[in-house]
Amino acid sequence: MLTSKVAKRYAQGLLDFTNESGQTATVFSEMKDVVKLMSKSQDLHKFFLTPYIDSKKKAEVAKEIFKSLSATSQNVITLIIRQGRESQLKNVAQEFINKVEDINGVQRVTVTAATQLTKDNLEQILKSTKLVDTASNFDLKVQVKPEILGGYIVRVGDQQVDASVKSKLNSIKKDFHLN
Prior knowledge:
Elements: H1 5-21, H2 24-40, H3 42-49, H4 55-65, H5 71-82, H6 89-103, E1 107-113, H7 119-128, E2 138-144, E3 151-156, E4 159-164, H8 165-178
Parallel strand pairs: 1-2
Antiparallel strand pairs: 1-3, 3-4
Helix pairs in contact: 1-6, 2-6, 4-5
């Protein structure tokens, strides 16, 4: 998923501030909660995207929803809303999480398969590719996309191993067209 420049800038500013104030760990866990809440609640997402609700009302609602968070997290959420960037709130929180994980050396691994994979299958796939350092920390996300027909796609950062049936069929099709 591509992250907007706005989300990256807000996340970097928040990271710089939390590093200076020593609150990175606290805000990190709170931003995970923000992402989880924004992902689960479509109504909240729609509320923040509604253009005819003014920013003061959105800030009041956000203050009530996120009242259990630290002052730093509440302030950054309020700032994002007052600047008219509430549509980027989830992206800012996710980008902050990504930046902290990068600092801590956590790899983000995405495995895409045509069907649900068992734990053993996942382990075999991760061991078969040189992209994933299974000895270090990694965050695994599994996606099921039947349109790849079979096989798997492993993505780590900006590198990808595509062992899907769809890509192999496309390769064969391309070879036939060339000959």
